[in-house]
Amino acid sequence: MASLAHALQIIGGWIAPLIIFLIKRQSRFVSFHALQALLFQIIHAIVMVMVVMIWFVTIFSSMALYTTPKAASPPMAFFIVFPLVWLFIMVVWVATLVIAIMYCIKASRGEWAEYPVLGRLARKMLKIGPNGSVMPGQI
What we know:
- By secondary structure, this protein is mostly helical.
- It has one domain (2-132).
- Helices cover 71% and strands 0% of the residues.
- The longest helix is centred in the middle third of the chain and has 38 residues, at 28-65.
- The two termini are 25 Å apart.
C-alpha cells in the first residue's frame, strides 16, 4: 500500500494518497509514505495553480495594454509566455513522474525513504522517529 500511494499519485493526484492515508492509518509505514505523497501533491497543486494564475494575468494584461482598433495579431506576450509555461508544466510533470517512481520502488523495498523537506514534516505530523521508531514520550 505504501508503494501504491506513490505510484497512484501519477494518475490520481492528491486523492489516491489521501485515500490510502485514511484507510491505512494503523500502519506507521504506509501512513508515512502516503502522507509524504499527499503533501507532495498538495504542493504540486498549489504551484500549478500559481503558475496558471500568473499566466492568465500576463496574457490578459498584455491584451488589455496592447489592444488596437484593428487587433490583427495576438499580443507578443502570448508567444513568449505560453511556451515557457508549457515547458515549465512539462518539466514539473516529468519530475513528478520520476519522484513517484523512485519513491514507489523504495517503499516496495521496505525503506523509510524521505522526500527532502516533506519527509521531516511527515515525521513530525505522524510523530514517527527514524526508521519508524516511536518518538520518546509517544507510547
